[in-house]
Specification:
heterodimer, A: four-stranded mixed sheet, 10 helices, B: Rossmann fold, Rossmann fold, five-stranded parallel sheet, 11 strands, 18% strand
């Protein structure tokens, strides 16, 4: 029996005989049924799920985008979110920056035996809340349980589909020299919030992850500016620098950015100094990079500023013909340097 | 950011640059000893802002770069034992030993944890009595006090399952080694601010006198670096050579006596192999006999490690300032950060990686 009173508050019905996930919860029998009915279905209640069919039947018309992503993060519950929000918002945002309005998600769990049911419940609640905030529905799903040691507590896969905005014409091939690079908000919040809770690197901070859905703002930008928006991408793993490198590699154009135009938050900047990290390489979950025609970049910025989470949006640089394949940074003091590509795992420096 | 923005002020930077330009009349080779300074020069784009007569040479002050391959192999070997948790600073993970890196060892099943402080490793030891916790103690004088403290804490609390694999190196013997090379081209040094924060200035004045070379203890921000360069150039142009302290807001004459005492209590000085450079007398810190139970090298006995293979890497010449990274025939061709021939191409503070990232 779970003796934790906090869990009783959060978790009134489900899994009452278990305080941890067991192999039985993935076996397809009574325990699986209990997990689904008392847990997943209670929170993510809709006709598709409740029909418990093998597939969700959807009737769609028009052009749709389809995207999938798997989520592994440690810790699974962190300041400002859980692996559950991330799994919803991650796929929602991949659709959002593709010009689509996300509608339906599938949700698959791989749970490691021993995961506490209270944590699983907290993750389910965050999934429900993220779905509500994003206006999407989970219409199909799956749960598997693996033996202890064969997973890392919980892995989540989500696949989503969304209707593409009629005015969207987004692809790297539309990017031209002279286009402006807009960053929708301050970088590195998510990565720093996660890192502040990793064992061995813990530090005191009030920073929380910026995980959130971005499609409302993206849809408004497309509605207003149509094909003036050339390309959008959310800079998750590898950070803003990795998105910029993807762009120059594929377009064979160059990029120039200005350090003094980066909307850096003081606390993030301080944590990055302490850890020896460059904020442009740290992961984000709630911002996007937008490449826009220079004629409309001021209007784009104006639109972004009208949203709370776009209030710090900034034109950080532009697309150039010079140094194809390279990202040039103008430093605050007037120096220049080429920004390297991220080389894999982000490792704090020694001094 | 308070206390940082002041030292990244572009008006002040330009003023210093103008002063440097008006002071310099001849070509000078200045070595910044510390990897953190190399990083600052590159990150802020300072190298291109300096007059062409000033050539900055990136010294051996990246502890990750100079840690011998054999010690990395030892760390890897230990990490792969089922009873060992190996703890390390982050940037050590990517550096290859003779065959693989710690990052690859982790993929092979090694329990390797990235930490900021060895004291956290002591905590891990307390919480895992069934495991041996080894901290890979890399770094210059800057990181040595915390590592010494971790040994003392473990010793005082009777903890038996903690040890350090010491790869500590010392700056003054490296400066001595560079200057005693008859082919040296170095005219002046920016000494490492953080190292002197711990150790003070005492060891540097004799070096400046003996080798007739200006040494300026310097910080890491643009204003620090440029002021340090200006101070070195001013001495050189006047034909002077003495020790100066640019980093006065942090470095005191005597350093941090308590930290020095800790280091001396736990470690003794002996000759140490520097990767790419070779053996430098009295340049390493080794765990004293009294604390031998906390010395991973003694604790785990002989570990069968091959000596470093002959490589085509010319990192030694780079770190001594004899060649610039692009002068190496393998730079950017056979040797890149993804496929490094030597450590300076791996670490973010390594001279070759800094050049590669800056120029590619």
């Amino acid at each position: 029996m779970n003796q934790n009173p906090k869990v009783q508050l959060n978790c009134p019905i489900p899994f009452q005989d278990f305080d941890a996930i067991t192999l039985g919860h993935g076996g397809g029998g009574k325990l699986t049924q209990k997990l689904l009915e008392e847990g997943v279905f209670t929170l993510l209640n809709n006709d598709w799920l409740m029909s418990q069919g093998d597939a969700a039947n959807l009737s769609l018309d028009g052009e749709y985008a389809l995207s999938t992503d798997s989520f592994v993060v440690s810790p699974i519950i962190f300041p400002g979110g859980t692996i559950g929000d991330l799994a919803v918002n991650g796929t929602v945002n991949d659709l959002a920056v593709s010009g689509a309005e996300p509608k339906y998600l599938t949700l698959s769990f791989i749970l490691e035996e021993g995961l506490s049911t209270s944590e699983f419940w907290e993750i389910l609640i965050s999934i429900r809340d993220a779905c509500t905030q994003a206006g999407v529905m989970v219409v199909s799903g799956d749960t598997k349980v693996v033996e202890k040691g064969k997973g890392d507590r919980i892995f989540i896969n989500t696949t989503g589909i969304g209707k593409i905005h009629s005015k969207a014409r987004l692809a790297m091939k539309y990017i031209r020299p002279g286009d402006k690079i807009i960053l929708s908000g301050p970088p590195a919040r998510h990565g720093i919030a996660i890192m502040s809770k990793r064992q061995g690197l813990e530090f005191e901070t009030t920073l929380t992850s910026d995980t959130r859905p971005l499609h409302h703002i993206c849809q408004e930008m497309l509605e207003k500016f149509g094909d003036g928006i050339r390309f959008m991408r959310d800079p998750t793993r590898g950070g803003v620098a990795t998105v910029l490198h993807d762009i120059v590699r594929q377009t064979k154009l160059g990029i120039e950015i200005h350090e003094n135009r980066l909307p850096l938050e003081n606390e993030v900047a301080g944590a990055c100094e302490m850890l020896g990290l460059d904020p442009l390489y740290v992961a984000n979950e709630g911002i996007f990079v937008c490449i826009a025609d220079h004629n409309i970049s001021d209007d784009c910025l104006h639109t972004l500023h009208s949203w709370e989470y776009g209030s710090q949006a900034s034109v950080i640089g532009n697309i150039v013909e010079e140094h194809p394949g390279g990202v040039l940074m103008h430093s605050n003091i007037g120096g220049k340097r080429m920004m390297p590509q991220a080389s894999g795992e982000l490792l704090p420096r020694i001094c | 950011m308070k206390y940082l923005d002041e030292y990244r002020d572009s008006a002040l930077v330009n003023k210093l640059l103008r002063k440097i330009r008006s002071t310099v009349t001849r070509e000078w080779n200045i070595m910044e000893v510390c990897g953190g300074q190399t990083h600052g020069l590159v990150r802020h784009g300072i190298l291109d802002m300096l007059p062409p007569k000033i050539r900055m040479i990136h010294g051996p002050g990246c502890p990750v770069c100079v840690t011998p391959a054999e010690l990395i192999d030892t760390a890897i070997e230990l990490s792969l034992r089922s009873d060992v948790i190996l703890c390390s600073y982050g940037d050590m993970l990517r550096v290859p030993g003779n065959t693989i890196s710690l990052q690859q060892a982790r993929a092979k099943g090694g329990d390797i944890r990235i930490l900021y402080s060895p004291l956290e490793a002591v905590n891990i030891a307390r919480n895992n009595p069934g495991k041996e916790i080894v901290f890979f103690a890399v770094g210059f004088e800057t990181t040595a006090p915390a590592n010494a403290l971790s040994v003392l804490q473990a010793w005082q609390s009777g903890l038996k399952n903690y040890s350090v694999l010491s790869a500590h190196v010392l700056v003054p013997p490296a400066i001595e080694a560079i200057m005693s090379d008859p082919e040296t081209v170095i005219n002046g040094f920016l000494a490492a601010g953080h190292v002197c924060t711990v150790m003070g200035l005492g060891e540097y004045q004799p070096l400046a006198q003996r080798w007739k070379v200006p040494i300026v203890v310097t910080g890491f921000e643009p204003v620090d670096l440029l002021e340090g360069i200006l101070m070195v150039v001013t001495q050189l142009e006047k034909g002077e050579y003495h020790l100066e302290n640019q980093y006065r807001r942090v470095v005191g004459k005597d350093g941090n006596p308590k930290a020095i005492e800790l280091v001396n209590k736990v470690f003794e000085h002996r000759a140490r192999e520097w990767r790419g450079i070779g053996e430098i007398p009295v340049s390493g810190l080794f765990v004293r006999e009294k604390y031998k139970d906390y010395d991973a090298l003694r604790k785990f006995g002989e570990i069968n490690i091959q000596a470093e293979k002959q490589t085509e890497c010319r990192s030694g010449d780079v770190m001594k300032g004899k060649i610039k990274p692009p002068d190496c025939p393998h730079f950017g061709t056979k040797c890149t950060p993804e496929f490094p021939l030597g450590a300076p191409m791996v670490s973010s503070e390594g001279a070759c990686a800094a050049y590669y990232q800056y120029t590619q």
